[in-house]
Amino acid sequence: MELRQTDVRQGTLTLKNGGTVRMDQYIARAESAAAQAAESAAAAAAQLAQVGANTDAIEALRRDVDIIGDELQGKYTKPIEGIAREDLSEDVRASLVSDKSIKTINGQTILGSGNLVIRGTLPAGGNAGQILVKKGSTDNDAEWQYPRYPRRNLLDNAVFMKIGNLPVNQREQNQYSTAGAFVFDRWKLISGTVELSANGLILNGTIQQTIEETIGQQYTASVLTANGIDSASFNPRTRVFSITSDGSAAIKAAKLELGSYQTLAHLEGTDWVLNEIPDYNKELTKCQRYLFIVTSASASGPVGSGYCPSDGQTATFFIPLPVTMRANSIPTFDGTLYIYAPGANGQLVTSVTASAYLCGNGVIFGAFVDSGITLSRGGGYVLRVNSGSKLIFSSEL
Fold it and tell me: Is the pTM of this model over 0.90?
């Protein structure tokens, strides 16, 4: 028997209801239904995968929000306006912040329940440069304060209260009244009188300090008095810092600094407290660049050595100093000085040269004796300062 391949598509199919349908049409319909089912299954699988990815993303976002909330709690000290203005993009800011309040959903912040601890309104007042500081553990217990991290003070010897050996006062007077004269270290009395007291300066007039250079930026000049922080005056062109007072309140300290606000002192309760107290030895070293006073604790103590360049009444001396002075200085003396030669009596110094020249960490100057006395050429001599006397070198500004 010969078998032949027959195409089933050419036949017919009898249906249960007695009807017939061509086999090729039936197969085409079945194939179409199978294809549609496959497409639906693929779409359903894609939707399930997307749901899983969204679930992971939502979970990651929730964790991120929790972390942000933890970081904000107790650590973010900027005002709400600062958050909106500085730290959020325009679209996020609009969605999160309205005026001074965080937007909420059903009474909770959109960052999550308990994640944001800034409540209520900000304290009134505040000045430029102040920050918001938490005072205690109760809600809304905050106030505006100046930062306690001070900038460098461009002034020397500017704490006037009696703290240890401060202020530096090599002239050792408590009261000064000569207008135009230098007073305690680095300061000059322009008018009136000034007195150093335990609580600060009692100034009835004006004192000034000239600094050596300016940087050309914005400066803040301030003083701390018994009444609190007040402003002072600074002229960058002349480099002069001025304090003027009527003597009604003791002046505790002064500061010149770069920037738009003061970091001289801050409030603790109702008391103003200095942000820093300078080291006396460092202040003394800075002051000695402008003024150095040689004294002797014993009678006729030696302070320098020298020689006589020629027969006559002048000897040249070198005196070592602990710092290099700012410039050649003007020597003066208050009391009695003596020139001694080995094995000879001391000769009284009548005057000194008009200038003392820098020589390393020291100065060279000349001392004169009476015209009736002759110092021998080439002779070695010692300069002595009598007890209670002073030899003064000034290159003050």
Answer: no
